[in-house]
Every structure is written in C-alpha cells, then in structure tokens.
From TrEMBL, chain A:
<feature type="domain" description="Thiolase C-terminal">
    <location>
        <begin position="248"/>
        <end position="375"/>
    </location>
</feature>
<dbReference type="InterPro" id="IPR016039">
    <property type="entry name" value="Thiolase-like"/>
</dbReference>
<dbReference type="GO" id="GO:0016747">
    <property type="term" value="F:acyltransferase activity, transferring groups other than amino-acyl groups"/>
</dbReference>
<protein>
    <submittedName>
        <fullName>Thiolase domain-containing protein</fullName>
    </submittedName>
</protein>
<dbReference type="Pfam" id="PF22691">
    <property type="entry name" value="Thiolase_C_1"/>
</dbReference>
<dbReference type="InterPro" id="IPR002155">
    <property type="entry name" value="Thiolase"/>
</dbReference>
<dbReference type="InterPro" id="IPR055140">
    <property type="entry name" value="Thiolase_C_2"/>
</dbReference>
TrEMBL record, chain B:
<feature type="domain" description="ChsH2 C-terminal OB-fold">
    <location>
        <begin position="66"/>
        <end position="129"/>
    </location>
</feature>
<keyword id="KW-0238">DNA-binding</keyword>
<dbReference type="InterPro" id="IPR002878">
    <property type="entry name" value="ChsH2_C"/>
</dbReference>
<dbReference type="Pfam" id="PF01796">
    <property type="entry name" value="OB_ChsH2_C"/>
</dbReference>
<dbReference type="Pfam" id="PF12172">
    <property type="entry name" value="zf-ChsH2"/>
</dbReference>
<dbReference type="InterPro" id="IPR052513">
    <property type="entry name" value="Thioester_dehydratase-like"/>
</dbReference>
<protein>
    <submittedName>
        <fullName>DNA-binding protein</fullName>
    </submittedName>
</protein>
<dbReference type="InterPro" id="IPR022002">
    <property type="entry name" value="ChsH2_Znr"/>
</dbReference>
<dbReference type="InterPro" id="IPR012340">
    <property type="entry name" value="NA-bd_OB-fold"/>
</dbReference>
Length: 388, 322
C-alpha cells in the first residue's frame, strides 16, 4: 500500500506534576502545544488539522472536552477529531494524526493528548459500583494485580523483578526534567520495602497520578523538505489492535491483540529481530511488572523470558534494549497523555534530542501504549532515516 | 410463563470535581465575588463576557481584562416553564442572552420575570447579586428587569476577600436507571432461586457465567442455558490493601477470579474464611450463600467464597484461564 511518508517534526510536553492548579485544562494543553509548534518551527497557521486524545470523560467530568478546547487548540476552521481508546489513547491519537498525513489528506497535523488527574479521582472513576455485581473492583491496580500474579506464576520469575523495573525507571526519571517523580533514593530495596497496595503490586511499583499534556507536530515528506528541520523522526510503521475485555480463556498475561500488533509492526517496519534492530523502547508500564510482560508480548523475548532481560540489566539505559529512558509511566502518568509521551520519547531519541536520557546512537525506536483491560494496543516505530 | 422484563436498578454517579481556572477565568470569577463583571478585550477590540482564555482570531491568551456593567439588554431568550433541580430559579423563568453595557458579545444567564409575556428582546435587565458571593457564575443569581428596585447592594459585602479565586467546585450528579441485559436478568433471577445459570456458545461450546447473550469470540447468540456448580477454583487474585473513595468492602480483602466447575470463564468475587495470606492460585472454593431471606436478584446473594478443604487444583488445569 503506497502512502506519503510522514515524520514527527515537533515534540512538546508539560512538566508533569501532581497538581497544576495554576492552569485550566486548556492552559495545560497550550503549554505542550506551544512547545511542539516552536520545536517544529511552525505556527498555528501552518497546521491543517488537530487531533486530540484523552482518557474517559469521567476523569475530569468534562463531557466532550474537545468542544471547549477548539479555540485554545487553534482548531476553528480546521478538522478537529477526538480519539478515545482508554489508557492507550495517547498512542492511538498519534497514529490517527500520522494516518491523516500518510493518507495524503493533510500536510501538517497537530496532535495533543492530556489528563488533569488532580481535578478528579481516577480510582473512584474506574470503580463505580454496578448494580447486581460484586463490588470488589479496586481501580486499575485492582484490575491488573491478579494478571501480574498470573505472569509471575507462569514465568516463574523471581519476586524482585518488579522492583528492578521500578528502581530503574525512577532513576531514569532523574535525567528527565519533565518527569513528575524525581525520587533519587529509590532502590530495589526501597521498592521492596514499600507498602503492598494490591498484592502483588507495591506502592513504589505503581504509577503516580499526574497533570500533564503532550503534543506532536506530524508532517509529510514534502513539508519536511520545505522546512529547516534536519532531524525529523520518520514514521516506519504504526499498528493498532483491540480485543474483548473478557472472553473464555483470554490470555491477559500475553494478550493476542498485542502480539498481533507487534508482529504486524515489525513486518511493516522491515524488522526481523526486534531486540537486535530496535535501539530503545518506550513501553507503557503503569505497574512495574508490565515491563517483562510486554517485552514478551512485543517479541523482544520469548514467552516466559522477559524478566531475564530485566534482571540482567539489559533494559537499563546502557543495556541491550533500553526501556523507558524517560522514566516511563511509572514516573509520570497524565493518563490520556501517557501513550503519546511514549511515542514522543521514541521520537526524541531518534531525533537525538532526548537530553540526558539520550541513548547513544539511537536510530530506531519503539513507542508503545495499551489501554482498557489490556484490550487496546497502539505502537509505532520511528527512525532517524527515512524508511526504505 | 409470561416473559419477565429485564431487571433495573438505580445507579448514581456523583463527584465534586475541583476545576482550576487559569489566569483569565480566575480574574472573571474573582470579579464576580466582588460583584464586578469582567470581560476580555480581544485583539479586534471587541469585549467578550465571560472572557475567552484564548483569542479566537490571534489564538493568543486573552490578557486585557476590563470591567463591564452588571446591566444590559436582552438579545434573545427562551422560556423555561418547568424548572429542574439546580437551575437558578425554582419557578418558571427565561434563559436569555444578555448584552451587558460595555460588552460586544452577550452573556447567557437566567432572567426572572413572572411570565413569558414580561420578557422581550430589548428588555433592559440588571444582575441580582448573591449576598454570599463565592467566586462562581452563580454569584449572579439571575437578571431581572432594570426597572425593579434593586434590593441588594452593588458591591460585595465580603470586601475583605482579596485572594484570587483560582478554582471552582464542579459537582456532577448522574442518575441512571441501570438495566441488566435479558441474559443477565435471567442470571440474576436464577441467583434469587439459589442457582447459577450460564450460557453455552453453540460454536466454541464455551460456557459463559454470567451469560452475555453473545459469544465475544464467535459473535453468535449464546442460546443454551447451563446450570453450573457453586464451587470452583481460584485462578488468580489480588489482595486489596488500599482504601479509596466509594469502596464498598473494607480492606484488606481478597478479590479473586473464581472459575466455577462447569464454566469456561472466571468471574470476580470475594474470598473469606481464610487468612488473605493463605489464599493460593488453584485453591478450591465454594460459595457461602447469605441467609435465604436476604436474597435478591444479585450476585451478592453469595456473601463470599471460602476454601472447600480439597487439594489445590493442578496448575495445568486452569493455566489457560490466566
């Protein structure tokens, strides 16, 4: 299928915080948008369409926020789309924006995703009791903890693997000025000593609740050529898949949709051995154990072996496949933006603009997001060079 | 037997959202608290109330904030014959677009008049301010015809509050009539008879409990009703130690996937009668039903599950359910 080449030419994000009481939702988005436009060396006049993403409306209690945001996002007179795929929305929003360029419909698309968690309580919003049903639900942690237990049992991983991930991501976050958590003292031991929230998930193995936004400017090959941008992040492949939340014998540890999306992505990007050909990966890891789980789901490791990469330090910044160089979701979690932040970090890496958390010589990177009860998957590969 | 309707139950979703305003709307709300309406002057010179955060033409933040009058002219209106809870007035009133003196765009607000005959385009109206301003749009209780003698002061009684209003509470109350599907209704009615009813997919033969009317894998109706046992195997679980808003069960508690014998999908329930730290994957458990006179059409007829004392199920027997 022939299509126009597209590239990320601008990345912007907020300094993610627990509470941004000094700005409205619109103001929060504009911080990210203004930074992305400046980074792309364009203005609103150069933008053809705007694609916005966020997680469920109950999180801030603003129904269809895209209506109220049209003005702040400079969308008047242009197409404005809102995407929603729960926690993966930042990823799928980026892909919808990229598709509009790749399809030859628009030259430059602005895409932005956000969450202002301080306006509400996501745990409450995810646990509204449903009549007739047993009220045992306990937020996202309560949902995923049993599946983490299943992973540990299936893979026979040692108990401290989750703590290794948490300590690594928190240390990486120290190099990222935009990260919400800057906890210099986090070690494997301190994570293991932290409170057990949803056994087997500990407090320090859990993502924070953040206010934040992320924006990207995606441009066509022709628009890149007419610009002064010398280091765009070329989009080599994008994939999305979904599956039912519940089905008999559904694999919640290694979901089918994620495996299928990854296989299609590697094929599309011309990659035969991901661990050898991908230089670094930003993977959606809201609870630490999802790093080894997704390493397997994505094909960086054989089933049951993801934790061995983590344990051997191969996912650290200087490892074979650095994962979550930015500090990841474990260090910043404005839910709706979290997926786009993964896609943005992958872009920054291949643009060579990741600052202190830059992986030396990164030329091909993965951005990944998942959402719902592991039922939505979105991922892309970006590269320093144009795809062949 | 006559076909019973689906089960219904009220579902209330309510939350007080804490909305931060940002600099522009903060000035607007702070103004209201001192009985002053503030508009925003846009790049083209027009004054808009409330001030937009961003200029629709230049897209820059609106920073030129100017006071406007608290009275003006009705531009257009609609009559509300039956007010609902939470509206500015509890008697019939008008929603109107009011062009305040000094502004170029109208403000939407309520106008209190006795009947729809007493309002017309061009009517001059004046704000009726709250005596207890809070820094919210409701500080203007409503507008009323300007020829009515003003009964409230035009400046706020709480003049000492100089701190900016930087946020508002935005309460949301949603009242749903929750309806279970026909298949779920059968399931819940079965529970009222002490039975656990599932449905089998005619294609893949998997038994779904609760039934859902269609197989999510094959996309065909699940028509065959199957009664399953009230005992089974814990496939996986977590121990909830974290308290949170709206929680119905006091932590710590074990939230477990229970795969009932005869079913092909596990469902979440509570495990008691054993220390949380003793619960294991593969543990055999049985339903503990509440006293029969407490039963309704709900899964909560089963108070919880507790260990049967049988040996644990072999891992391979439930591995595919993880």
């Amino acid at each position: 299928m022939s299509h126009t080449l597209a590239a990320v030419i601008g990345v912007g994000q907020t300094h993610h915080r627990a509470k941004r009481e000094d700005v409205s939702i619109a103001g929060l988005l504009r911080e990210a948008v203004d930074r992305a436009l400046a980074d792309a060396q364009v203005t609103f006049d150069d933008i053809d369409a705007v694609v916005v993403g966020k997680a469920p409306d109950l999180f801030e209690g603003v129904m269809m926020p895209e209506l109220y945001l049209a003005e702040a996002l400079g969308a008047a007179g242009k197409p404005l789309l809102r995407v929603h795929t729960a926690g993966s929305v930042g990823g799928s929003t980026s892909i919808v924006a990229a598709s509009l360029v790749e399809a030859g419909i628009h030259e430059r698309v602005l895409t932005v995703a956000f969450e202002k968690q301080s306006e509400s309580n996501a745990m409450w919003a995810l646990s509204v009791p449903v009549p007739f049903i047993m009220p045992v639900h306990a937020g996202a942690g309560g949902y995923f903890a049993p599946h983490v237990r299943s992973y540990i049992r299936r893979s026979e991983a040692p108990n401290h693997i989750g703590a290794i991930v948490a300590a690594k991501d928190r240390q990486n976050a120290l190099k990222n000025p935009y990260a919400h958590l800057h906890n210099a003292d986090t070690t494997v031991e301190s994570v293991l000593a932290s409170q057990m929230l949803w056994d087997p998930i500990r407090y320090d193995e859990t993502c924070p609740s953040s206010d934040g936004a992320c924006a990207l400017v995606i441009a066509s090959e022709a628009a890149v050529e007419r610009s002064d941008i010398k280091n765009p992040a070329w989009i080599h492949g994008t994939q999305m898949r979904s599956e039912p939340t519940t089905a008999a014998e559904r694999d919640q540890v290694n979901p089918h949709a994620g495996r299928e999306a990854a296989a299609a992505l590697w094929k599309q990007a011309g990659i035969s051995s991901p661990i050898d050909e991908i230089d670094c990966a930003e993977i959606y890891v809201p609870f630490s154990w999802f790093e080894p789980m997704w390493l397997e789901n994505l094909g960086f490791a054989e089933q049951g072996d993801g934790w061995r990469l983590t344990e051997a330090g191969e996912t650290a910044l200087d490892g074979k496949i650095p994962v979550n160089m930015s500090g990841g979701v474990l260090s910043s979690n404005p839910i709706g933006a979290s997926g786009m932040l993964r896609f943005a970090e992958a872009s920054l890496q291949v643009m060579g603009e990741a600052g202190e958390h830059q992986v030396d010589g990164a030329r091909k990177a993965l951005g990944h997001a998942y959402g719902g009860g592991s039922q939505f998957f979105a991922m892309w590969v970006v590269g320093s060079d144009k795809p062949r | 037997m006559a076909e019973l309707g689906t089960l219904h139950a009220p579902l209330k979703v309510e939350f007080d959202y804490t909305r931060s305003l940002g600099p522009t709307l903060s000035e607007f709300m702070s103004g209201l608290r001192r009985h002053q309406v503030v508009g925003g002057r846009l790049a083209d010179g027009t004054v808009v109330v409330p001030p937009p955060e961003y200029d629709p033409q230049t897209l820059d933040p609106v920073k030129d904030l100017v006071p406007v009058a608290d009275e003006g002219i009705v531009q257009s209106w609609t009559w509300v014959p039956e007010p609902v809870k939470g509206q500015p007035l509890d008697r019939p009133f008008a929603w109107a677009l009011v062009l305040l003196d000094g502004a170029d765009r109208p403000l939407l607000h309520a106008v209190a008049v006795d009947s729809s005959d007493a309002i017309e385009t061009g009517l001059r109206v004046r704000a009726r301010w709250s005596d207890e301003p809070a820094g919210a749009i409701t500080d203007i209780r409503w507008f009323e015809p300007a020829d009515v003698a003003s009964t409230s002061s035009t400046t706020a009684s709480t003049g000492s509050t100089t701190e900016a209003v930087d946020g508002i509470i935005s309460p949301v109350h949603l009242d749903y009539d929750y309806a279970a599907s026909p298949e779920e209704s059968k399931f819940f009615r079965g529970l009222a008879d002490g039975k656990i009813l599932g449905q089998r997919c005619p294609k893949c033969q998997k038994v779904y409990v609760p039934p859902r009317g269609a197989c999510p894998v094959d996309g065909v109706p699940t028509t065959d009703e199957v009664e399953v046992a009230d005992h089974g195997t814990v496939t996986t679980f977590c121990i909830v130690n974290v308290p949170f808003l709206g929680q119905k069960i006091e932590p710590p508690y074990v939230s477990a996937y229970v795969l009932l014998d005869g079913a092909d999908i596990a469902f979440l329930h509570l495990i008691l009668g054993v220390e949380a730290s003793e619960v294991r994957m593969g543990m055999r458990v049985k339903a503990v039903w509440k006293p029969r006179d407490e039963w309704g059409t709900t899964i909560e007829n089963i108070s919880h599950f507790e260990p049967t004392g049988e040996p644990d199920a072999d891992f391979e027997s439930y591995r595919i359910h993880l």
